[in-house]
Write a structure and sequence with these properties.
Elements (H helix, E strand, L loop, with lengths): L1 E4 L15 H17 L1 H12 L10 H8 L4 H19 L6 E4 L4 E9 L2 E5 L8 H14 L3 E6 L9 H9 L4 E4 L2 H10 L9 E3 L4 H10 L4 E2 L7 E6 L5 H12 L6 E6 L2 H15 L5 H11 L1 E4 L3 H11 L3 E5 L4 H4 L7 E4 L5 H6 L25 E9 L1 H17 L3 H16 L1
Parallel strand pairs: 1-11, 4-5, 4-7, 5-6, 7-8, 9-10, 9-12, 10-11, 12-13
Antiparallel strand pairs: 2-3, 3-14
Length: 426
């Protein structure tokens, strides 16, 4: 891996441009086609892009039953345990409606209402991850969303991967559709004969999915425009080089554009981790992908001390941050920007991907500076509630009309004053 000493001239990549003009035009064309032709467009794109000839879009119960025949019992048990842990974590995020009353007759509050209908995109191909299903659907269910539609691209045999179907069924998903890509996003946003439109779309996908989500934002809400995965490991001389290297590679194998970074104040650790990365790369099944990631985006930043290391981490604002230093809890308060923080030498990042409970849908590409992980809050909306008594209106009328006229909004002021006249005539 490339080793670089941090100084005042060091810059940290934040965002990658999502899409070029060519891809954007393709996505615009696909969205228009789906809006105009509905299911027919979905069947055609599935045939042309996925190589599968379908006669129906919705997964039937027989397909779910068949999927269980291809999954070992211990895998099903692991899925169920992960669902339990993830649900338990997200139930602690639930926000309740609230009301407060004041002595002057004012009642104020906030009403929390789940979204009516949500669409979840599940990637296919080399990124058909059952864990993504759990992380997107469980917080929506905990929030109380009534209808959840799941879409995912089919394999050439016209089926979805068994692991995807079993996970969705274990979660109780009733609507599973065999369609992927920008066309699936368009179907969720605008609806077709088979797929009813949703209020929000969540879930990761390729560049065409990301561009489609961006294009339909405003018609529906979306979770985020996710870039390639990234990890930063903050480590000192106490870290074990082989462990750090393994954690860096755990993200590098995701994608050729994934980013794996080590930030350390130990030159010796930097050298040893670099050697370990090369050693471990050669035995990885996805060596080509991981090597492209490490050679393209991988970095080791060497700092003068731990404080500079922490400052560097905050500038990177990583999606995943591992803190493998002496007394990691002491450093937690100094971290300002990170999607998920993994403390200590035994808390490797894959724990968060699958099993611990926190959501693994995280802000990428430095957007942890202003974004948060997917949560129950993403599947509810909040309405302000106001109620004024006669006495409260009379007491505050002068201040309200003064501010209205300061802004040149006479009708606002008169809407208050007309009630004052009514009170004087009572």
């Amino acid at each position: 891996m490339k080793i670089q000493r941090v100084d005042q001239s060091t810059t940290f990549k934040r965002t990658v441009e999502v899409g070029k003009e060519k891809e954007q035009k393709i996505v615009e064309s696909i969205i228009k086609e789906v809006r105009d032709n509905g299911d027919d467009a979905l069947f055609r794109y599935t045939r042309e892009l996925d190589g599968a000839e379908l006669t129906q879009l919705k997964v039937e119960p027989t397909e779910l039953e068949e999927a269980y025949q291809h999954i070992e019992p211990n895998v099903i048990e692991a899925i169920r345990e992960a669902i339990h842990r993830i649900r338990d974590f997200h139930q602690r995020q639930v926000t309740q409606s609230w009301m407060t009353t004041k002595a002057d007759g004012v009642m104020l509050g906030q009403k929390v209402t789940p979204l009516d209908r949500v669409g979840v995109y599940v990637p296919g191909g080399k990124a058909a991850y059952p864990s993504s299903i759990m992380m997107n659907i469980i917080p929506a269910q905990v929030a109380g969303v009534g209808d959840i539609a799941m879409v995912s691209p089919v394999q050439k045999d016209g089926k979805l991967p068994a692991g995807v179907l079993v996970t969705a069924n274990e979660l109780g998903v009733k609507e599973i559709y065999k369609v992927g890509g920008a066309q699936a996003v368009a179907a969720l946003a605008y609806g077709t004969e088979t797929i009813a439109p949703v209020d929000k779309i969540t879930g990761p996908g390729n560049i065409y999915v990301a561009l489609a989500k961006r294009a339909v934002y405003g018609v529906v809400d979306i979770d985020m425009i996710a870039g390639p995965s990234d990890i930063t490991v903050l480590a000192d001389e106490t870290a074990i080089p082989s462990h750090v290297a393994a954690d860096l590679l755990s993200q590098a194998e995701h994608d050729e554009l994934a980013t794996a970074i080590l930030v350390t104040d130990s030159e010796e650790l930097a050298e040893e981790v670099s050697k370990q990365v090369e050693l471990q790369l050669s035995s990885l099944p996805k060596e080509a992908i991981a090597r492209a990631s490490i050679e393209g985006q991988g970095k080791i930043y060497v700092t003068k001390d731990l404080e500079e290391s922490i400052d560097t981490v905050n500038q990177i604002a990583p999606e995943h941050l591992e803190i493998i230093v002496q007394n990691p809890m002491e450093q937690l308060g100094k971290i300002r920007h990170a999607g998920a923080i993994f403390l200590g030498p035994h808390t490797t990042e894959p724990i968060g991907d699958y099993f611990a409970g926190p959501n693994h849908v995280l802000p990428t590409e430095g957007t942890a500076r202003f974004s948060s992980p997917l949560s129950v809050d993403d599947f509810v909306k909040k309405s302000s509630v106001l109620s004024y008594s006669k006495e409260a209106l009379l007491a505050q009328a002068d201040a309200i009309t003064t501010l209205a006229r300061l802004e040149g909004l006479e009708a606002h002021a008169r809407a208050v004053e007309i009630r004052l006249g009514d009170e004087e005539n009572d």
